[in-house]
Design a protein that fits this description.
By secondary structure, the chain is an alpha+beta fold. It contains two helices and ten strands. It has two domains: 60 residues, no CATH class; 62 residues, CPE0013-like fold (Roll). 15% of the residues lie in helices and 35% in strands. The strands form three sheets. A five-stranded mixed β-sheet has the order 8-5-6-10-9. A three-stranded antiparallel β-sheet has the order 1-2-3, with helices on one face. The structure holds iron/sulfur cluster.
Length: 136
Amino acid sequence: MNDRLNDRRGAPGTSRLERIICLRCPRGCEITTSLDGYGAILEIEGNVCRLGRQYVEQEVHNPTRILPTSVRVRNGRYPLVPVWTPRPIPKQYLRDLARSTRSVELEAPINVGQIVISNWQGLGIDVVASGEVERV
Ligand code: SF4
């Protein structure tokens, strides 16, 4: 069984197993799910509560993450300000969004909650400052 865990290469018609750590609470249950060859969930075990099932369903079908990063600041007390996506975004966009933030340079002062990138790529994804930087 274990040699098939985390193997995402299953061909259509071939079931496979995945091991997923639930991050919904600090308990961090290790959940094993079996998927059919088309990615449909057949079975879930190892979750202590129903949130674990929801977490696995999302991880399998539409994994999302919050992106925490930083952007450059001109004329500020600090050269960088922390930013984040207040809402989780599809995992597939993380790398490109992080790349986009590298080209951003803000003029101090920066306030908490200030929009840094609005509606990225027309996808409704905002990047927001999570810290302050005074002007110097
Ligand atoms: S399955 Fe329930 S108890 Fe286990 S980590 Fe997820 S939320 Fe916590």
